[in-house]
Amino acid sequence: MKRLAKTLVAATLAVLARAVLRKYKPGIVMVTGSVGKTSTKDAVAAVVKGHFFSRASEKSYNSEFGVPLTIIGAKNPWTNPVRWLKVFQEALALIMLPSHYPKLLVLEVGADSPGDLDRILRIATPDVVVVTKLPELPVHIEFYASPNAVREEEFAPAYALDAGSPLIISADDPYAREMAKPLPVRVMTYGFGEGAEIHIADPKVRIEDGEPVGMEAHLLYQGASYPLVVRGALGRQQLYAPAAAFAVALSLSMPLDEALKAIEGYEPPPGRSRILPGKDGSVLIDDSYNSSPTAVEEALAAMALIEGKRRIAVLGDMLELGRYSKQEHERIGEIAGDMSDVVVAIGSRAQAIAEAAQREGKAVVLSYETSREAAAALPDLVREGDIVLVKGSQSIRTERVVEVLLRDAADRTKLVRQDREWKAR
Prior knowledge:
Protein-Tyrosine Phosphatase, Chain A; UDP-N-acetylmuramoyl-L-alanine:D-glutamate ligase; six-stranded mixed β-sheet
């Protein structure tokens, strides 16, 4: 019964969202990929909002529910039937009555299982597509026949583009480059590779008053160099999102100076390698939104960028890896054990991280079944000057660990999953 209700609601939302788009005909920038979608969507939204009357997906609302809700402009009703009725009423009002509707939508789209993006693309057709990253082992691989099947689905929005439309991809992603070759589109590239049309050069940690505050680099475009600063988060990967947003601005014929000024207002979303002051003079890297092998590697590399008394890697289960789960947890454990002084594993799958890190012999290794258990134990472990990375898949709820390690309790508002509905779970 619950599944039937979900199917009916999704079908109704799709019909209403399609009708809204047919009436108002906004331009659509669609952001897809395995890693970095929300950061990129937020960066694009920050860049275009001053130039266009626009709307972007809230948080990571990228599903067959989240995309129509963004199109309609409604909040997530969760399981409240009265609020769902209100969403349908809002959609009908948009369709039947005149409204001041956005001229541009920035839609994040994602796939958890085969067919998800096909359903979304039956609702909305993109005018510009940004592909963030298609790693060797993508997320949600558990539900697909092969890694390539995941990449094909995540690349699907590019196939929906009209000839000559902008397709923006990472020059550092061999899969995206290869998949883009046969398409009759305008390919624009960004990244650290020398061949990137928008080249990210000289990346480094930005230090102010002796403290790490973010990342800085230069964007090289058509022989000119533009300074780029991303505050509040660590890692080379944090520079991809504003570079992609700069490419979107170019594709929409925005003035360069306006686009660069707008990028200054971009702030990475919660739970994506955000730098937060930790208890007893420690520094937290809050990467608790979600986890996958590629993302953990990037997070560990971000942790390695700053010096501390000790590097503590708190790593929860990486879910939806299917047959690759054990080998990937072990591989991450080896990397973490080599790069960290202390490795803390959370969850049943993460025990493979702990075992592999233990075999490395360099790090102190601790294991906990749940984030609540880890949260109870870790405050006594952290000391002044420690660098603490916290990362895990969504349902492992590693933000609970970050919360107890905060120096200032008021910073809880900067964490992921602080909605009442999430907190009640």
